[in-house]
TrEMBL record:
The protein's name: NADPH:quinone reductase
Pfam families assigned: ADH_N (PF08240), ADH_zinc_N_2 (PF13602)
Domain Enoyl reductase (ER): 8-304
Gene3D superfamilies to which the protein is assigned, alphabetical: Medium-chain alcohol dehydrogenases, catalytic domain, NAD(P)-binding Rossmann-like Domain
Amino acid sequence: MKSIRIHTYNDKPVAEQIPTPAVAKDQVLVQVQATALNPLDALVVSGVAAQFFAISLPLTLGTDFAGVIEKVGSEVSQWRVGDRIIACADASTCGGLAEFAAVPASACVALPQSMSAIEGAAIPIAALTAWHSLFSSARLKAGETVLIHAGAGGVGTFAVQFAKKAGARVIATASGDGLELARRLGADEVLDYTSVDFTSVVHNVDVVLDLVGGETQQRSFEVLRKGGRLVSTAMPPDAHMAESCGVTASMFYAAQYASQLDKLVSSIVEQGVEVVIDRVVPFDAFDDAWERLVSGRARGKIIVQ
Ligand SMILES: NC(=O)c1ccc[n+]([C@@H]2O[C@H](COP(=O)([O-])OP(=O)(O)OC[C@H]3O[C@@H](n4cnc5c(N)ncnc54)[C@H](OP(=O)(O)O)[C@@H]3O)[C@@H](O)[C@H]2O)c1
C-alpha cells in the first residue's frame, strides 16, 4: 500500500510502498479516506516530538484521519466492518498517511452521517486543542473577553467559533484573508497583526489563547486584566512574568484530552460549528500539502486525500 514515511529525523517525508499493517487483537484496520496535517507532524519529523512520545523509526506519519473499518481485531466488540470512523492516533505510532492504518479501537469515534471524511479528519487535534484550552485550561465563561492569536489557523478557526458560541466576546488576530475568515466565524473584533500592535488596542481581557508563542506570547501578558489567564499551545509561558503581572499562565497539551473526542464531535454537529478546510490535496501530491503546513499560513485545516 502507499504510505508517507520518515526513516530518520529531519528526513523529508517520502511516499513509499509498504505492506498493509497487521491488526492486533485490540485494534481495527481502517481504509483511510482523508488525513489532516497538524504542526505536530512537523515536530515528529524534526525529532522534537520524540522528547514527549516513544517514537520509533521508520514511521508512517499522520495522527488524525477518517475512513471505513476494513477489519476488526479479535477482542474488538464496539466496531464492525463498514463502520465510518474518525481516528486520533497516538503520536508515537501515527499511521494515518497511508491507504490503510491499524489503530487501537479505543482511538476511534463514529463519523457522523452528516459529516464527510474530510471534515471528520480535520477535527481531532485541532478541535480538542481549541475546546480544552479555552474551557478546561482557561475556564473561559460567558460574558468574558478572550484574545485569540492566530484566529484563522487550524486551531484558531475552531477556537473563535467555540468561544463565540459559549457567549464570550472574541478578539482575534490574523492577516490578509484570515481577517475576513475570523470575522465570518464570529470574532467581534479582528486585528491585523502585521500592521497593528495588539498591545496598543487590547486591554484588560480575561483570557488570552496564545497559538503563536515567542514575542506574541510575551507581549500578551500586558493585555490581561489582574487575575486573567493565559493559555499557550505553542510555548511554555514564563512563570515569573505571569506572577509579576498578577495573572496565571499555563502550557496546554492536547494528548490528555483524546478520550473526549466523541463528545466534542457530537457538539460540533449540534452547534453547527464550521469545519474550515484550507485545501484538500491528493495523496500523490503530498509534497504540496507538506509545503503548506510548514509555511504556517494555513486557513483552517490541510487535508490529504
Ligand atoms: N500543545 C498542543 O497540544 C498543541 C496542539 C495543537 C496545536 N499546537 C500548536 O499550536 C499552534 C497553532 O496550531 P495550528 O494547528 O492552529 O497551526 P496552523 O494552522 O499552522 O496556524 C497557521 C495560522 O497561524 C497564523 N499566524 C502565524 N503567525 C501569527 C501571528 N504572529 N499572529 C497571528 N496569527 C499568526 C497564520 O496566519 P497568517 O498566514 O496570516 O500569518 C495562519 O493562519 C502551533 O504552534 C502548534 O504546534 C499545540
